[in-house]
Design goal:
Number of helices: 29
Number of domains: 4
Strand content: 5-15%
Largest sheet: 6 strands, mixed
Distance between the termini: 38 Å
Family: Belongs to the protein kinase superfamily. TKL Ser/Thr protein kinase family.
Structural class: alpha+beta
Radius of gyration: 29 Å
Protein name: Protein kinase domain-containing protein
Strand order of the largest sheet: 2-6-7-5-4-3
InterPro entries: Ankyrin_rpt (IPR002110), Ankyrin_rpt-contain_sf (IPR036770), Kinase-like_dom_sf (IPR011009), Prot_kinase_dom (IPR000719), Ser/Thr_kinase_AS (IPR008271), Ser/Thr_Kinases-Pseudokinases (IPR051681)
Shape: globular
Pfam families: Ank_2, Pkinase
Number of strands: 11
GO molecular function: ATP binding; protein serine/threonine kinase activity
Helix content: 40-55%
């Protein structure tokens, strides 16, 4: 490379040499300043493979991403940001919101950057852009509510089969001189999306049989420059209200009462799932329950799923809500909101059995609402006596006058000792696997860097416009994503790239802080932060798994090694679920506790076949390893389900003393993992630099390691071409 050439000029021709550059630097043949000019732009893209679920990318087939393995473990947390932590395995946007609310720090989603930031964390496929043929052209309106209008595509359009499209209701007029997406009306409507998106992306709810599945998100363009958010959700047979209409009675066949009973159980189970995550639905009614045909069990031919979170509908909400004088600051507790849902659920169940899903009026000057409900049940002559008795008990508990006396939703409220309940229970316990739709990418492969790489130019343009108008409203992770996105959309991007990374680092985003100093150096710019601050950020990155940092005037070599050892002691790049089990880790680190563990438990420590020997190797507990091998007689070649030995795990974590001991005991390094065909040689970079050559020589000469061992990139069917990822639980 000639003096004076910049990284942006040589990015493409240099990317193929990046791995060799990194290895040479490890050997001490190059200084970081020698390597950076050729790798400058790659540092940003590599850091962006820091996934919110802390997954390490396994593929080395794309030269632009050769540092992914090191950078992917930094995590998504903002080190100095409110509520930040470094011990999250999977970032759940719902949990993130609950935490921020309890800390008094939550701001409602009202900007495109917040919306995009949330979606980047969820991994939901998107965005899909309905630009060439918008919804007016390609679909028919099938429903309309306060928050969304629902469309179904015409049959001659392909790509969204099995889905309906919910478009946020926004006025298309705009404020003078303000872009559409920056207008106040648009920003307010984004709030209507927040709870729905966060909730439907929650891992537990995505796999719940009675919660509607969100498949993708995108934008409709009623006008060429007016992107309106849309959600693509699974298509139902109909709403519960329409399903129960007299003209549709034939759908229920010979057992209409059993089908109503099953659907009531579905509604209760769905609301129970929401409440288990402290989600208040707020608008429970038959219109917000979707009915699907279920072919898995002929005794339970339909399935009800909860949809459309929102603001309560008059007639379906608890009258107590409207009595503001009752809910003073001292009387109100958030938990009461769950009991308000109970009341709406009671009305919904009653409506299903006596009013074909229509609204039920329980107001009476002479009787309580519960008594009116019970009287209406008695008038339903076709209802079996056991069901009537159970519904009577259920409604008394759900519709109680005192909200605190109401039962919380639970299928046991409707439990009967009959075949109908047994059939439903059998179905409900099978759960559901999320359906894969044409053209969608699995959540696992559409987060973080992969998400930002796929983002459409129109969304990037809107984000940049928002940044120009209001920098303070931008999420730091969205700024970092924006920095990556513009590198593929512009011929000249250095100035905004560095500005976005600078502001992202200032906002506390760890990946931005990890690469900031190197990016500034690569582009010969003066950092906006002190050397002391930059050194602190680098050491934080190293302790999170960025093992390629080098010593400098501000960072001593021993400081770097201490930070690296902190990462190794926590488990390094080991992937066993046991790293999340505190009792296992305590046993793995202490010889006496290990003995006690073996007395009380079996050798396995998780569902992946890892043993206590794997756990001790992962945390570098040499004495425990020695005791397990010599005293407890653990076979040195013990493998887990992926054929990983304890020696392999020690290499993943970078523990030289454990590696030496196991090699002394005859451990072999030739075994490759079952899925990716990885060997111990692939993890040499985790070791202290002065040990790499010695250990590499030893495992090749003495332990049978194969120099030509090649990993296999596993690409799943719905990965969008992205390689399979490996979870690092302790990060």
């Amino acid at each position: 490379m000639e003096d004076g050439e910049f990284a942006s000029d040589l990015l493409d021709e240099a990317s193929g040499d990046l791995l060799n550059d990194a290895l040479n630097a490890l050997e001490g043949d190059q200084s970081p300043s020698d390597m950076l000019p050729e790798a400058g732009e790659d540092l940003l893209n590599d850091a962006l493979n820091v996934m919110e679920d802390n997954l390490v990318e396994l593929s080395l087939s794309n030269n632009d991403d050769l540092l992914d393995d090191a950078m992917g473990v930094l995590g998504d947390d903002c080190e100095d940001a409110p509520g930040a932590h470094s011990n999250s395995t999977l970032v759940d946007p719902l949990e993130e919101r609950v935490t921020s609310i309890r800390n008094g720090e939550h701001q409602y989603m009202s900007t495109v950057s917040q919306f995009t930031s949330i979606l980047a964390k969820t991994g939901i496929h998107g965005p899909r852009h309905l630009r060439q043929y918008n919804l007016k052209t390609r679909a028919v309106k099938i429903g309309n509510g306060a928050q969304f209008t629902v469309f179904r595509e015409y049959s001659d359009f392909s790509g969204n089969e099995g889905l309906v499209i919910k478009r946020v209701n926004v006025p298309l007029s705009r404020e003078e001189g303000v872009s559409f997406a920056s207008g106040e009306d648009y920003r307010l409507q984004l709030r209507t999306l927040e709870l729905e998106v966060r909730s439907l992306c929650n891992p537990m709810l995505r796999n719940h049989r009675n919660i509607v599945q969100l498949a993708a998100w995108g934008y409709d363009y009623p006008l060429p420059d007016t992107p309106v958010p849309v959600l693509f959700v699974e298509s139902a047979l109909t709403t519960l209200t329409d399903f129960l209409k007299v003209e549709n009675q034939d759908l229920m066949g010979d057992s209409p009462m059993d089908i109503k009973y099953h659907l009531a159980l579905d509604v209760v189970a769905g609301i129970e799932a929401l409440h288990s995550l402290n989600i208040v639905h707020g608008d429970i009614k038959p219109d917000n329950v979707l009915v699907f045909k279920d072919t898995q069990n002929e005794k339970v031919p339909f399935c009800g799923k909860i949809s459309d979170f929102g603001v309560g509908t008059p007639g379906w909400v608890d009258p107590e809500i409207q009595d503001a004088s009752r809910w003073t600051k001292n009387n109100f507790k958030p938990e009461i909101m769950l009991r308000f849902d109970s009341y709406s659920l009671g009305l919904t169940i009653l409506s299903m059995f006596i009013k074909q899903g229509e609204m039920v009026n329980l107001d009476s000057d002479e009787e309580s609402r519960v008594d009116v409900a019970i009287s209406l049940l008695r008038e339903e002559e076709s209802m079996p006596s056991d069901l009537r008795m159970q519904l009577t008990r259920t409604l008394r508990s759900l519709l109680a006058e005192d909200p605190w006396a109401r039962a919380l939703p639970n299928p046991n409220l409707l439990k009967l000792d009959n075949l109908a309940y047994a059939s439903w229970l059998s179905m409900s316990q099978t759960g559901r696997r999320a359906t894969r739709y044409v053209g969608t990418t699995d959540q696992m492969y559409n987060k973080g860097a992969n998400f930002w790489r796929r983002l459409d130019k129109s969304v990037i343009t809107e984000l940049e416009e928002q940044y120009r108008i209001s920098k303070n409203s931008f999420e730091s992770d969205a700024l970092f994503g924006l920095a990556q996105s513009i590198t593929r959309l512009r011929a000249s991007y250095v100035d905004p790239l560095l500005e976005y990374v600078t502001e992202s680092a200032r906002g506390g985003y760890s990946p931005a802080r990890a690469v900031y100093a190197q990016l500034m150096h690569a582009h010969r710019r003066k950092p906006e932060f002190s050397d002391k601050t930059l050194a602190k950020w680098t050491l934080q990155a190293v302790s999170g798994g960025y093992l390629f940092a080098k010593s400098s005037a501000a960072i001593a070599r021993n400081e770097l090694e201490v930070a690296k050892q902190k990462f190794r002691d926590a488990g390094g790049f080991a992937t066993g679920p046991f790293l999340q089990k505190q009792n296992v880790l305590e046993a793995a680190r202490d010889a006496q506790k290990a003995i006690a563990w073996l007395k009380d438990n079996k050798r396995m420590v998780d569902n992946k076949g890892n043993t206590l020997l794997h756990a001790a190797a992962a945390v570098g507990a040499l004495e425990v390893v020695r005791g397990l091998v010599e005293d407890a007689k653990f076979p040195i070649e013990t493998q887990n389900d992926n054929l990983e030995t304890a020696l392999y795990t020690a290499f993943q974590a970078g523990h030289v003393s454990v590696i030496d001991y196991m090699l002394d005991k005859g451990a072999k390094a030739s075994v490759a993992t079952k899925q990716e065909k990885l060997t111990a040689l692939h993890w040499l970079f985790t070791l202290p630099e002065d040990c790499i050559r010695r250990i590499a020589t030893r495992i090749v000469q003495d332990a049978g390691a194969l120099l030509d061992a090649q990993m296999v990139t596993a690409v799943a069917e719905f990965s969008g071409g992205a390689p399979q990822r490996m979870q690092t639980p302790h990060l």
